[in-house]
Amino acid sequence: MKADTNPGKTDLFNNTELTEKQRRDIRLNLNRDIEAFLSRGGRVQVIDANVRADPPRKPSVNYGSAPI
Fold it and tell me: Is the pTM of this model over 0.90?
């Protein structure tokens, strides 16, 4: 997600001091967005906790590769 550069908006990702009304508004907007997504035919999938989007890579071996 792209960071919002509008200084008038609250940075919701880093703000730990949201009021109860702000939290309620965020939840309401999120629920509206989810309902709109589902009404357009979207699906929500539950992914197992051990699944990663970036599987581990084989470690690169650089030992001894520098010239003497």
Answer: no
CA quadruple 37, 38, 39, 41: dihedral sign = positive
- pLDDT per position as a tens digit, 10-36: 566 566 788 999 999 999 999 999 999
Contacts of 44 (CB under 8 A, 6+ apart): 34, 38
Query: Distances from the Cα of 21 to the Cαs of 4, 6, 17, 27, 28, in angstroms?
Result: 21, 21, 12, 10, 10
Residue 4 contacts by C-beta under 8 Å, 6 or more apart in sequence? 11
DSSP state of 37: H
